[in-house]
Amino acid sequence: MSNKKHLSCHRPSQKMKKLNWKKLPNHPATGSSLWLSDELELPEPDFSAIEEFFSQIEPTTKKSSAAVKKVEPQEISFLDPRKSLQLNIFLKQFKCSHEEIIEMIRRGDREKLEGEKLKQLLKLLPEEDEIEMLKSVEEGKKLGNAESFYQHLVTLPSYTVRLEALLLCSEASAILARLRPQVDNILLACCDLLNSTRLQRFCMLVLEVGNFLNFGNYMGGAHGFHVSTLSKLKQVQGNKPGVSLLHFLIMESKDKDADLLKLPDDLLGISKAANCDIGVITCEAAILHKRLEDVKKTTVSDPDVEEQFSNDIEVFHNTSSKLHSTLCEIENKRVEIAAYIGEDERKFSLQECICNISSFRHDFLQAEQENKARAEHKARMARRREQEKAKMAQEQNKSEATNGAGENDSSHCMVDELLAKLKTGYKSNVKNQPRRGARNGQRPSQHGLVGCFAH
C-alpha cells in the first residue's frame, strides 16, 4: 500500500521558509504503519494562509529600466543550517574544488588530509536520509555548496572506510611513536630496580638503623620495609638543625661505604620512568590494537581499499603487537618485583613503586648537596677562626714591640738630658768656684769631679 495520497500536489507561489527535518527513506511499508492511512479522512490545509504566514519576505530593490535583472536558478538546500555551515567552513580550508578533495580521499593523501581534518570530516559525513534526498534530486538542478560536496562524495566507493583507514594510519604512527619510548623506559626501570646491588645495600643500612631507632616498641625487629619508607627518611629530623635521618645515612655511607654515594646513578632510569603512566599506556595500546584489527577487517570488503592500506595497517598492527608483548613482559616484571621486595602482588602497584624510588633519588641528591654545603661552611668557619687567632697574635706582637721600642727611646732621652745638664753644671761650677788646688798650689783631685756628678 502506498502513501502517495498524502503527498500534496499544491505548490507555493512564492519562496517559503524551510522546515528542517529528516525524511524517511522511500521504502515500501508493510503491515501496520503510521504512514499508511489511506482510510483516514484528513482536512485539507489552508495553503493560502500558509503562504501568508511562512513566505520569505524578499528585500525590495529598485528596478532598473536600463538593465534586465538576470534570474539565477534557485539552489537546492536540504541540510540542517548548522551542519551546512560547519561543512562549508571545513571545505574552505582546502581552497580547491570538490573533485580535487574527493581525489585526495581516493588516493589517501596523508599530507593534506591530516588527522584533525579527517576527524572533522568523519563527523560531517552524510546520513542515510540525506543520501536519499540527494538521490531524489533531479538531474541538472543546482545544489548548495555543502549538498554539492555530498553529491561528489557519495560517488566514491567505500568513502567511510577510506576515511577511517586514513585517520587510523595517521594516528597510529603518532601513538606508537609516543608510547614505544615510554614502554621501553618502564621495562628498563624494572630491570634497574631488580639489578641494583647499591639499592639493596642501602636498604639494609636503613633497616639496621631503623631497627635501632625502633628498639623496644612494636615497630622494632623488622625484617624489611615498604619501599615508600625511602621517601620518608628526610621527615625524621635529628637534634642538629637541618640534619635528617637521610642526611645522617649519607654521611655514614661516605665514611663507611663510599660506593653507596653512586646510588642515584643506578636509579636514573627509574626516575625517567616516573612520568610514564602505566595504566594510561596500557589502555591506549589496547584501544589502538583493537582499532587496527577492526579496520583490517573492514578494508577487506573493498579490494581497492584493501590494496591501498593493507601494507601500512599490517606494519602498524605488527608494531602494536610488539608493544603489547612488551607490556606483558612489564606485567611479569611487576610480579617479580613484588616478590623481590616482599609485597603482595595482588595489591602491588608498579607505578607507585617507581614514583617512590624516583622521589627518594631526588631527596638523596638534595641531601648530599646539603651535606657538602654544611661541611664547606664548617670548614670556612674553622679557617676564619684560625685567621682571627693569627691576626690577634700578630697585633699583640706588634703592640709589644711598639711598647718596648718606646721605653728604650724614653730611657735614651733621659740619659742624654742628664749628661747635658751635668756637663753644663760642671762647667758653671768650675768657673765660679775657687780652685782649691790652685790656692794651695795643688791640682784638683778626682773627688771634686765626683762631687759635681753628685750635685
Compile the SSE list and pairings.
Blueprint: H1 47-54, H2 81-92, H3 98-107, H4 115-123, H5 128-136, H6 145-153, H7 159-195, H8 197-213, H9 245-256, H10 263-266, H11 268-273, H12 278-298, H13 303-340, H14 350-432, H15 436-439, H16 446-454
Helix pairs in contact: 4-7, 7-12, 7-13, 9-14, 12-13
Key attributes of the depicted protein:
16 helices; disordered N terminus; 455 residues; disordered C terminus; single chain; mainly alpha; elongated
Could you characterize the architecture of this molecule?
With 455 residues, this protein is mainly alpha-helical. The protein has a domain at 81-156. It has 16 helices and no strands. The chain has helices at residues 47-54, 81-92, 98-107, 115-123, 128-136, 145-153, 159-195, 197-213, 245-256, 263-266, 268-273, 278-298, 303-340, 350-432, 436-439, 446-454. Helix 7 (159-195) packs antiparallel against helix 12 (278-298) and helix 9 crosses helix 14 (350-432). The termini are far apart.
Offer a concise description of the structure.
The protein is mainly α.
